[in-house]
Amino acid sequence: MTEVRISLVGYGVVGHGVVEVLERKRQLMGEIGLDLTLVSVTDHTGTYLAPDGVVAKDILDHRTLEGVANSDMAAREVFGSIDCDLVVEVTPTNIVHGQPGLGHMVDALSMGKHVVTSNKGPLVVDYRRLKDLARKNDVALKFEATVGGTMPLISLIERTLVGNTILGIRGIFNGTCNYILTRMAEEKYPYNHALTEAQELGYAEADPSYDVEGVDTAGKVAILANSIFDMDVKYGDVEVTGITGITPESLILAHKRGYAVKLIGEVPALTVKPMLVPLGSPLAVGSTLNAAAIYTDLSGTITVTGLGAGRIETASAILSDIVSIYRGNHVDAQRS
Ligand code: HSE
């Protein structure tokens, strides 16, 4: 049995999901030879240290660690002072400066800890530095949850499609926009009403303009460009048009003519823009779903679809990344 001692940084929606999923899958992980022990949880209010393992029910009912934390150590001090092998970083995304996640990841990788994350900001702002740090310290940096949530994309390319040259990826990478576009076209919902519903579903970013103006999708395009296409792309290199200029009339007209309007991100073209997609096409998924068409030289086009966000779904992608590190399947996503 391999013991993996995990420090969790960030205790919002995804952090709670990670605590819950580690607890729910404890037995299954044991069956594949992994003893995943959560030894600390840190948020902006403090740290909960549990060297013998966090008991999920002791903290899951608390929205933050306020009143539960038994230490005021910040993440960096935690990594430096306790025995942990892997850091799960799930603080909120900031696509401009990447903080606080970027600092957490730099610290963890520099101290020789594997990092698994759902936080897009640091990967958009400083991907190359993080990847170099991981290489230098002989640890893994895994981020399946950053693009498409639980929809397998990066791991699918890394493992299953290994040997293929990836010619391009085109997809729907924002559930909030997809929900709004679907509701407006199919049920003639007003834009604001559809956005409010997407927010209630817990999909929208804290600032929903990140979703509807295409910023979130552009961040995901940059992550795919850097990790799959070995490019060195920042958010500003992506040409972005969001969905705010789309009228209900144009959506309804397109629908009548057999098309859906989708916010599509393309790599390596580095574009994000609303595009017409035939209604029968595998990319024409509705509601909050994400979808991606992967164009390859050996396997033709592979299309995947799945939930791009959600507490448990995102935690599922994080768990999958953790397992892949210890099952010896770690292959660099980057290919030439
Ligand atoms: N706001 C994002 C979405 C969350 O709507 O898809 C997942 O990155």
What would you note in describing this structure?
The protein has 336 residues and is α/β, with parallel strands linked by helices. It folds into two domains: 2-149 and 311-335, NAD(P)-binding Rossmann-like Domain (Rossmann fold); 159-306, 2-Layer Sandwich (Dihydrodipicolinate Reductase, domain 2). It is built from 13 helices and twelve strands. The strands form two sheets. A six-stranded mixed sheet has the order 3-2-1-4-5-6, sandwiched between helices. The two termini are 36 Å apart. Mean pLDDT is 94; it is low at 329-336. L-homoserine (HSE) binds next to helix 8.
Structure, briefly:
This protein is of the alpha/beta class. It is built from 13 helices and twelve strands.
Annotation keywords:
single chain; 336 residues; alpha/beta; Rossmann fold; Dihydrodipicolinate Reductase, domain 2; 2 domains; six-stranded mixed beta sheet; 13 helices; 12 strands; 38% helix; 22% strand; globular; disordered C terminus; binds L-homoserine
